[in-house]
């Protein structure tokens, strides 16, 4: 793809002229397409002056830390430091219900973790990294703050994506956002030119604030995160087993802080409802819900209610974007 090859060459030149020869750069890897492609690109431009970090913010999916760290090691060949900051994030999120507030807190904590990481690197390499790589895409930019001349009429913020509007104003690290003008399918093309393994390029998008935008309200309430992880794992695994993963843009579960009455065995229960969302999309800006076969859904719902304690009801989100967004918060 000659167009993407040009974009790649141009980006590498831009980064090389922006980052001085003895300057260092931090990149937060999430295990997703965007940050992986961004890191690989920046690594090509500046080599080992790039320092990658994977942050466990306590908002990851089932076994995600172990899975992602092992794929980084086996497939990506980029050195990655893993930081467990789950206590730090979750304690700051305790009792917080407002979606925008949750995003702001998460953005701030990420920066605090990067600052610490930069400080530790300074002790080790004698130089403080001055830049942060973000895998921000064009749709993130226009939804958080439509650029002038983009032809977009809305001037309000739909959501402050943590990697755009949610970053603290006083952040000292300068941003490198090599994917800022690209859509997801273009990032996937760029990734394949950069030999990023298919396993990364085909992963469904996952939001930076993680499960915090999928547990409605207080993320730390009860065992919401644990329940959500189990439900989500069953749903996504069933999608993979049915060979549907690549047909779907994104599929996930949402924890609803709602208790409903049910009957399990011969017991009356009063337990949680969860929602399933699966969508098709071209770029995440608009979306349609995915129409599953009845048998598939019956099987998934049985698996969820039989295996996840505390869930007695499953609903499916059948709202397009717009009017709904992809995530529930
Ligand atoms: P929404 O919910 O805005 O989602 O319709 C559109 C796409 O963006 C992802 N998303 C995020 N990604 N940081 C991210 O990196 C965020 O704060 C964020 N919020 C939403 C969402 O998963 C979907 O793919």
From TrEMBL:
Signal peptide: none annotated. Its EC number is 6.3.5.2. The chain holds residues 216 to 544 of 544 of the full protein. It is an enzyme of class 6 (ligase). GO terms for cellular component: cytosol. Residues 2-203 form the GMPS ATP-PPase domain. ATP binds at residues 30-36. This is GMP synthase [glutamine-hydrolyzing]. It catalyses: XMP + L-glutamine + ATP + H2O = GMP + L-glutamate + AMP + diphosphate + 2 H(+). Catalyzes the conversion of xanthine monophosphate (XMP) to GMP in the presence of glutamine and ATP through an adenyl-XMP intermediate.
């Amino acid at each position: 793809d000659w167009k993407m090859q040009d974009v790649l060459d141009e980006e590498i030149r831009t980064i090389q002229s922006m980052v001085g020869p003895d300057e260092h750069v931090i990149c937060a890897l999430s295990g997703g397409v965007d940050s992986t492609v961004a890191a690989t690109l920046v690594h090509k431009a500046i080599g080992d002056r790039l320092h990658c970090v994977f942050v466990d913010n306590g908002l990851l999916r089932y076994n995600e830390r172990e899975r992602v760290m092992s794929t980084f090691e086996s497939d990506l060949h980029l050195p990655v430091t893993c930081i467990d900051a789950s206590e730090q994030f979750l304690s700051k999120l305790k009792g917080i219900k407002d979606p925008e507030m949750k995003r702001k807190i998460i953005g701030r904590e990420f920066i605090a973790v990067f600052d610490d990481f930069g400080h530790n690197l300074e002790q080790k390499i004698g130089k403080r990294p001055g830049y942060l790589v973000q895998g921000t895409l064009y749709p993130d930019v226009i939804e958080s703050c439509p650029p002038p001349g983009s032809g977009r009429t809305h001037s309000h913020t739909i959501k402050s994506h943590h990697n755009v509007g949610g970053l603290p104003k006083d952040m000292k690290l300068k941003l490198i956002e090599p994917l800022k003008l690209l859509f997801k399918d273009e990032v996937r093309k760029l990734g394949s030119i950069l030999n990023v393994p298919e396993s990364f390029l085909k992963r469904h998008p996952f939001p930076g604030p993680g499960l915090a935008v999928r547990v409605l309200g207080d993320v730390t309430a009860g065992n919401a995160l644990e329940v959500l992880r189990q439900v989500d794992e069953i749903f996504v695994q069933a999608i993979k087993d049915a060979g549907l993963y690549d047909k779907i843009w994104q599929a996930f579960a949402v924890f609803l802080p709602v208790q409903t009455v049910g009957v399990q065995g011969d017991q009356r229960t009063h337990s949680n409802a969860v929602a399933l969302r699966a969508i098709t999309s071209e770029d995440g800006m608009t979306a349609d819900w995915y129409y599953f076969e009845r048998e598939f859904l019956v099987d998934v719902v049985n698996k969820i209610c039989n295996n996840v304690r505390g869930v007695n009801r499953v609903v499916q989100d059948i709202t397009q974007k717009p009017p709904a967004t992809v995530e529930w918060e």
